[in-house]
Amino acid sequence: MYSKRFTISLVFIILAYIFMSFLALMLGDEFLNLNAIFNAFASDDELLKTVLLDIRLPRIIMAILIGMLLASSGAITQSVFTNPIADPYIIGIASAATFGAVMAYVFKLGDLYFGILGFIFSCVFSLIVFKISNKSSIAALLIIGIAISSFLGAFTSFFMYYIGEDSFKIVAWLMGYLGLSSWSKVAMLFIPLVFCLAYFYAYKNELNIILSGDEEARNLGVDANKLKRNLLIVSSLAVAFAVAFTGLIGFVGLIIPHIVRLFIKNYNNTLVLPICTLLGGLFLLICDTLARVILAPIEIPIGIITAFFGAPIFLFLALRARSFL
């Protein structure tokens, strides 16, 4: 069942996780070698422990969790719409989640409500888009998604203007920012991640069936419309909590599923979903580490790093798919 390429991918990603996790712990405003990291747990240096355990480690885990949420939701969205460019960011689900998170900020609600309001708005938006998609071409779907995203973006911009000087925090957040990572946020992200991944994997076989078309799914006893709607709602939950805590980080959910399918040469979600989820976390960890160290002590918003790598990769994949390369 599991191909050689799947096994190679899994081993490579696990080894890369170990390497990147230690590297991310070492790099920062102050370089720490491996001895310093291992000795920190037995040391009385509270500052060193704080840097490692309360600043760098939760940030590493946050980057991995966010990457997993975005990559898995991207793979599911592409399968639901049976289109490789139906990414939550492109069709506007992320913009709806952003609007909800900004509303939570305006009303001075707690961190958890950023995710809750983001989920409510992204869920409503995704259901509207899904309803429209049943009657429209993918081109029309993308146009509608962009239009509604721009409409919500106008409201987001208005609230940023209304907030005044504090709006700089939102601007930085909208560009993707992991600097406010904490163990409490890790805990809040872990719950929706486990739920979403469990739901996605529970319906992996049905998801494979609907890739063959709604009529084929109906013949096999699968209610394609109901399944797609439910998967889109759960995918909206993943995107909402990712956006709520780190802002807009594009291209993860778009390019990671492409790369995985290209390498393992398989569209079976039993294989694609786990590798896609793991690779998404690794990709965002690499991007966040680069964002911290390239211009240290100045930190580059992670959304800029993902776009820097993501846009050329997506262009290459698009051209390759159309046999231009």
Task: Give the SSE map.
Blueprint: H1 4-26, H2 34-40, H3 46-80, H4 93-106, H5 111-133, H6 138-163, H7 167-174, H8 183-202, H9 204-210, H10 214-219, H11 224-246, H12 252-264, H13 269-293, H14 302-321
Helix pairs in contact: 1-13, 3-8, 3-11, 3-12, 3-13, 4-5, 4-6, 4-11, 5-11, 6-7, 8-11, 12-13, 12-14, 13-14
Structure commentary:
With 325 residues, the chain is an all-alpha fold. The protein contains 14 helices and no strands. The protein has one domain (4-319): ABC transporter involved in vitamin B12 uptake, BtuC (Orthogonal Bundle), CATH 1.10.3470. The model has no long low-confidence stretch (mean pLDDT 82). It has helices spanning 4-26, 34-40, 46-80, 93-106, 111-133, 138-163, 167-174, 183-202, 204-210, 214-219, 224-246, 252-264, 269-293, 302-321. It is globular.
Tally of contiguous helical segments: 14
Number of domains: 1
**By CATH's scheme, which homologous superfamily applies?**
ABC transporter involved in vitamin B12 uptake, BtuC
Percentage of residues in DSSP E strands: under 5%
Helix content: over 70%
**What string gives the helices and strands in order?**
HHHHHHHHHHHHHH
Give me the CATH architecture, please: Orthogonal Bundle
Major beta sheet summary:
none
Question: What would CATH call the class?
Answer: Mainly Alpha
User: Strand tally, please?
Assistant: 0
Q: What is the structural class?
A: mainly alpha
Evaluate the radius of gyration. Answer: 20 Å
